[in-house]
């Protein structure tokens, strides 16, 4: 039986393996497998909410094993470390348990068709001290770590043991992640005062958002980026544009001009790259960000049996631009890869993927949402803000849920979510 392995159960990979499991695995037409280094799935664009405590990864995560059971594929816990294209095998690294004891030894899995969907990691561009002192938001564990550190700082602040008159946080990167996290942190502070964190109010935060470019949110039109910046400044965020960070230390960030931006909690969200081990993996072609080069059908340029989707794919479009690393790209690529894998199995011609940009939206917690929409209904770009923008922003996550669970289950999940909002605290408090 044909063996199909999807490595990476994220925004793109989990949608794809779910479709393949339903179409092929359940009917015994192929053996469909998912490999992921985590046991549960959390949609990556929600990580800043986990970091601020607005979402609990433990409760909102989806178990790969149970999802696999329900959708006709098998799940293998493990981290891809190598690829042998001649033998058509992948290697999963040996795994340790939580206490550091060996748990699983190195394993190999055979494939006929392989899909790589392992996403991206933050790119610190080799900046001194960043990997030691800054937290990245690449994985749920890192977002949870940031949340723990944040709660510790707040506790020290209310107990008078912080050693500073403010909780000093610096975020590097004025893209969507940095902007959304900034707003989410002010929302967190406002809620925490209701849960026994006396004297905690927005004034206790000194939050600096640092951007090397001339303005934040380069993907949005000037006017919307300006609105977002105004909203952040009104909340109390010190937005620094044209500011290049050259070093991170235990005291804060050092800028190119030699200024110290004091911070004890620092997040680096300024750019991404594909994981380093993808460089030259199996002799495949990469770009300088380690992304694997694919042709229009999403197959790698050097091996037709390997597809790559999502952030780790380098897919050039007719206009010479690469498909951007975004959730909507991963969603669209998952649908196209599904179609093309079925075509490959049935000896039919494969289709070329054309990226459709439906716009960008940035959610500033409960304060506002801004963005631009594009599509066939609108000629050009439509700028949106407020409640309508928030509904459209949420719909991207709903589309992901629908791809995984179908409409009825997604509707039930939304209903349960509403009830939980009444029953659970507004923030994760531990
Ligand atoms: C905080 C934040 C906010 C964002 N907000 C938005 C937004 O509003 N809109 C938008 O369009 N995009 C947003 N993005 C970007 C978006 O999350 C990504 O573009 C999208 O998740 C990419 O999907 P993917 O399937 O390629 O990878 P991912 O969703 O990252 O999934 C990768 C999967 O691979 C697994 N994996 C990684 N390495 C290995 C390995 N070696 N072996 C096995 N498994 C592995 C991971 O555990 C993960 O499950 C945001 C990103 C962040 C960090």
Helix content percent band: 25-40%
Cα-atom radius of gyration: 22 Å
- Please write the CATH class name of the largest domain: Alpha Beta
Strand fraction equals 25-35%
Strand order of the largest sheet: 5-2-1-11-24-23
Q: Total helix count? A: 10
**CATH topology of the largest domain, anyone?**
FAD/NAD(P)-binding domain
Give the biggest sheet: 6 strands, mixed
Mean pLDDT: 91
Question: How would you summarize this macromolecular structure in one to three sentences?
Answer:
The protein has 430 residues and is of the alpha/beta class. The protein has helices at residues 13-25, 47-52, 57-60, 64-71, 130-133, 140-158, 176-192, 222-235, 327-345, 386-423, and strands spanning 3-7, 31-36, 40-41, 62-63, 74-77, 80-84, 89-92, 95-96, 102-104, 107-110, 113-116, 121-122, 135-136, 167-172, 205-210, 238-240, 245-249, 252-255, 260-262, 265-268, 272-273, 292-294, 299-300, 303-308, 313-315, 359-364, 368-374, 381-385.
């Amino acid at each position: 039986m044909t063996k199909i392995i999807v490595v990476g159960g994220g925004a793109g990979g989990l949608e794809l393996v779910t479709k393949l499991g339903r179409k092929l695995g359940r009917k015994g037409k192929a053996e469909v497998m998912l490999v992921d280094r985590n046991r549960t799935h959390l949609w990556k664009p929600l990580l800043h909410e986990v970091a601020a405590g607005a979402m609990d990864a433990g409760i909102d995560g989806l178990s790969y094993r149970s999802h696999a059971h329900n959708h006709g594929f098998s799940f293998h816990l493990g981290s891809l470390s190598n690829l042998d294209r001649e033998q058509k095998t992948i290697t999963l690294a040996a795994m340790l348990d939580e206490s550091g004891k060996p748990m699983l030894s190195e394993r190999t899995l055979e494939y006929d068709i392989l899909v790589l969907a392992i996403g991206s990691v933050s790119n610190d561009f080799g900046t001194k001290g960043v990997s030691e002192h800054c937290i990245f938001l690449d994985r749920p564990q890192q977002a949870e770590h940031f949340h723990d550190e944040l709660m510790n700082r707040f506790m020290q602040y209310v107990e008078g043991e912080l050693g500073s008159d403010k909780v000093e946080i610096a975020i590097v990167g004025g893209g969507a992640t940095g902007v959304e996290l900034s707003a989410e942190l002010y929302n967190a502070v406002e809620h925490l005062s209701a849960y026994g964190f006396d004297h905690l109010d927005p004034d206790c935060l000194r939050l600096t958002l640092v951007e090397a470019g001339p303005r934040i949110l380069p993907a949005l039109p000037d006017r919307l980026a300006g609105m977002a910046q105004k909203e952040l400044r009104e909340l109390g965020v010190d937005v620094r544009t044209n500011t290049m960070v050259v070093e991170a230390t235990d005291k804060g960030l050092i800028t190119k001009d030699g200024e110290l931006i004091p911070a004890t909690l620092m997040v680096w969200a300024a750019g991404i790259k594909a994981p380093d081990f993808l460089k030259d993996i199996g002799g495949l072609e990469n770009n300088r960000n380690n992304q694997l080069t694919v042709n229009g059908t999403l197959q790698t340029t050097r091996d037709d049996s390997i597809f790559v989707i999502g952030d780790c794919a380098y897919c050039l479009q007719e206009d010479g631009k690469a498909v951007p690393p975004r959730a909507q790209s991963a969603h669209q690529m998952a649908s196209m890869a599904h179609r093309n894998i079925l075509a490959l199995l049935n000896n039919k011609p494969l289709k070329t993927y054309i990226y459709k940009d439906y716009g960008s939206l940035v959610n500033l917690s409960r304060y506002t949402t801004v963005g631009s929409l594009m599509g066939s209904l609108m000629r050009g770009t439509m700028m949106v803000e407020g409640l309508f923008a928030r509904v459209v922003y949420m719909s991207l996550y709903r589309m992901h849920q629908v791809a995984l669970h179908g409409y009825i289950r997604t509707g039930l999940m939304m209903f349960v979510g509403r009830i939980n909002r009444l029953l659970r605290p507004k923030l994760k408090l531990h």
